[in-house]
Design a protein that fits this description.
CATH architecture of chain B: 3-Layer(aba) Sandwich
Largest sheet of chain A: 16 strands, antiparallel, barrel
Strand content of chain B: 15-25%
Number of helices of chain B: 6
Distance between the termini of chain A: 28 Å
CATH topology of chain A: Porin
Structural class of chain B: alpha/beta
Number of helices of chain A: 6
Radius of gyration of chain B: 19 Å
CATH class of chain B: Alpha Beta
Oligomer: heterodimer
CATH topology of chain B: D-Maltodextrin-Binding Protein, domain 2
Number of domains of chain A: 1
Structural class of chain A: mainly beta
Number of strands of chain A: 18
CATH architecture of chain A: Beta Barrel
Order of helices and strands of chain B: HEEHEHHEHEHE
Strand order of the largest sheet of chain B: 2-6-1-5-3-4
Shape of chain A: globular
Strand order of the largest sheet of chain A: 2-3-4-5-6-7-8-9-10-11-12-14-15-16-17-18
Shape of chain B: globular
CATH superfamily of chain B: Periplasmic binding protein-like II
Largest sheet of chain B: 6 strands, mixed
Strand content of chain A: over 45%
Helix content of chain A: 10-25%
CATH class of chain A: Mainly Beta
Distance between the termini of chain B: 59 Å
Chain lengths: ~450, ~150
């Protein structure tokens, strides 16, 4: 079924690209049809960036097609299908990116129902659209790749509008409430697995399913009367539960000792599973509550665009596995981890990230852009030493990621764009353990602190 | 891949800048504006607009005239008048304006304005479409369509 959808999707895109005439939007009986296809290539000197980038990978693409129609003066319907791939994320499955019914009562009040693009910062809604921005990769401080699918679109209802402020410019607002379908094999699940703090003890986890209780998002933008200056603020929040399989890796010396020294532990261990020397334990649950705030500014002056954003996200995470944690309580307590009623509550922590970017269009066909982006997964541990002390990581540079990016964009013609981009990275935060497995030789480092990432991308759109 | 790849990227970047400069394609910081007038269909119930209102209309933030009639946008695809109008009244370059509307369309937020290759086509569309607003070279189209005064 999925293959059939993929074939139909690609056929439709291909047909649109091959139709005679200019490659602009097509209209069929009042329905506008637009689309895009991007293919990229990623290569890193060290560390795998959400795909096997150390070896170089072309598993980096996006394609979308949308249909929209104005049913009446006030009612608009639209739908977009999207397929994307980044390493193990996406795998070119065709998904419903957005599908909306939009009723525009007044300029200051509109109602959207369905699956809407998620508002966050200045550019989250357009992050799938390579053709509308200078950069290939968005600054990871505010637009983290692992969170991308989690804040791509929201199923529910939203209010939006534009309010004139007379001499002070105007105000745009968006309020959204609903839920999100999160897949257990995509970025958010991988990120959650990376938060699991017991890997060093030989306890591994694999998220099976995620059930989102609620999601909300809100955004306000002040289009000031200083020409080209936009100031904005946005927030979003999530509450979800995840079920996960817990595994005990007996090749890990700590795990082997646990098994030997805790008689009660043996009762928890199931049969040896397909992974080899790993035993399946009773399932674990995650409870996650997260709230994020972003402050944004954008200034356009002629061919220059300057943007800067700051994001702070607070996490409350609970791990629940009553049989396991109760049995391990003495061991965990000795390591400073408190267990209550079979639950481990991680101290609330906040990540912070910020960036400043500059882009200049030198010619109708050439644009140059750069940004500096900084991300700390825990604002109270910016040097990463605490996470090492707690045994969460072996390397302190997992506590930050500082990225200097330089991009060139070439608009070959109205429909084709080519981009080249280089990143100088300092730190290894946001990289996922699933993409960077621990080396067999314990003397080898799992992550490198200083590394480079190169990206190339070609986009066709109509 | 090792660090030796970086100079290659840097060379491509520099080559792009140098080529643009020597090719004479560097976007001029500013030039004498062509005479552009804002025109509207006869049904439009206003005679003048503020500059801010023109900006809000062409960015889709104001979608109705004071009598409730829907505003229909008409733009030129390219040309000197197109660039001058956008710079003077919308505060964007043609590239930024195009990107803005692509963002609206591809995120389900709006329908792109009608875009015409020639001023004649635009004039005909505005004349025949209730609620339409557009812009034309002043010299060639003066007194042919209803023009709006920009305050």
């Amino acid at each position: 079924m999925k293959s059939a959808v993929k074939i139909m999707f690609l056929s439709a895109l291909f047909a649109m690209c091959c139709l005679p005439g200019n490659a602009r939007a097509y209209e069929y009986q009042g329905v506008d049809i637009r689309g895009f296809i991007s293919q990229g290539y990623l290569q890193s000197t060290d560390n795998n960036f959400f795909a096997e980038t150390e070896d170089g990978t072309s598993q980096f693409n996006e394609a979308g097609i949308n249909f929209s129609a104005e049913v009446s003066d006030r009612l608009r319907l639209g739908v977009q299908f999207l397929s994307r791939d980044l390493g193990t994320i996406g795998n070119n499955e065709v998904i419903l990116d957005w599908a909306i019914a939009d009723y525009h009562f007044r300029d200051w009040l509109g109602l959207t129902v369905g699956n809407m693009k998620f508002v966050h910062g200045l550019y989250n809604e357009t992050r799938d659209l390579d053709m509308v921005r200078t950069f290939i990769l968005m600054p990871q401080s505010v637009y983290i790749e692992a969170w991308r699918e989690a804040i791509s679109s929201i199923q529910g209802a939203g209010l939006y509008g534009d309010l004139g402020l007379s001499d002070m410019g105007s105000l745009s607002y968006d309020l959204q409430y609903g839920t999100v379908n999160l897949d257990s094999d995509k970025g958010a699940a991988r990120l959650l697995e990376d938060q699991w703090p017991f890997e060093g003890m030989g306890l591994l986890v694999d998220v099976d399913s995620i059930d989102v209780d609620y999601t909300y998002a809100g955004s306000i933008r002040w289009i000031t009367n200083l020409e080209g200056l936009i100031l904005g603020g946005s927030t979003w929040g999530y509450q979800f539960e995840a079920d996960a399989t817990t595994l005990l890796d007996t090749t890990n010396p700590t795990a082997a000792a646990l098994l030997q020294n805790n008689p009660g532990f043996v009762d928890l261990v199931g049969p040896l599973n397909a992974y080899g020397a790993r035993f399946m334990l009773s399932p674990s649950e995650f409870g996650v509550e997260t709230v994020s705030y972003t402050a944004s500014m954008e200034f356009m002056w002629r061919n220059l665009v300057f943007a800067a954003e700051y994001m702070r996200t607070t996490y409350n995470i609970e791990f629940r596995n009553s049989p396991l944690f109760t049995t391990l309580e003495p061991v965990l307590s000795a390591n400073g981890v408190a267990v209550q009623d079979g639950t481990i509550e991680v101290d609330q922590f906040s990540s912070v990230g910020y960036y400043a970017s500059l882009a200049y269009r030198f010619a109708p066909w050439f644009e140059l852009g750069t940004y500096y982006s900084v991300y700390y997964p825990n604002e109270d541990d910016k040097d990463g030493k605490e996470r090492v002390a707690k045994g969460l990581d072996d390397q302190d540079h997992r506590g930050w990621l500082k990225d200097i990016a330089l991009t060139t964009r070439f608009d070959v013609n109205e429909n084709w764009i080519v981009k080249l981009e280089a990143h100088k990275m300092d730190g290894s935060a946001i990289l996922l353990g699933a993409d960077n497995p621990a080396p067999e030789d314990p003397a080898e480092d799992r992550y490198e602190e200083d590394w480079y990432l190169f990206a190339a991308k070609m986009t066709f759109h109509f | 891949m090792k660090l030796r790849s970086i100079p290659l990227i840097a060379r491509i970047v520099l080559a792009g800048i140098v080529l643009s400069a020597f090719g004479g394609f560097i976007v001029p910081a500013g030039h004498a504006a062509s005479e552009v007038m804002v025109v509207a269909n006869d049904s439009v119930p206003v005679e003048s607009l503020s500059r801010d209102a023109v900006q809000e209309i062409f960015l889709g933030r104001k979608t109705r005239w004071s009598d409730g009639q829907k505003i229909t946008l008409a733009t030129l695809k390219e040309g000197e008048e197109h660039g001058d109008f956008l710079r003077m009244y919308v505060g964007k370059t043609p590239h930024q304006f195009k990107n803005y509307w692509k963002s609206q369309v591809f995120t389900g937020r709006g329908k792109a304005p009608e875009a015409f290759t020639s001023p004649d086509e635009l004039a005909e569309f505005v004349t025949n479409t209730p609620g339409a607003i557009g812009y034309l070279p002043q010299r060639a189209y003066q007194n042919q369509l209803k023009s709006l005064m920009i305050e």
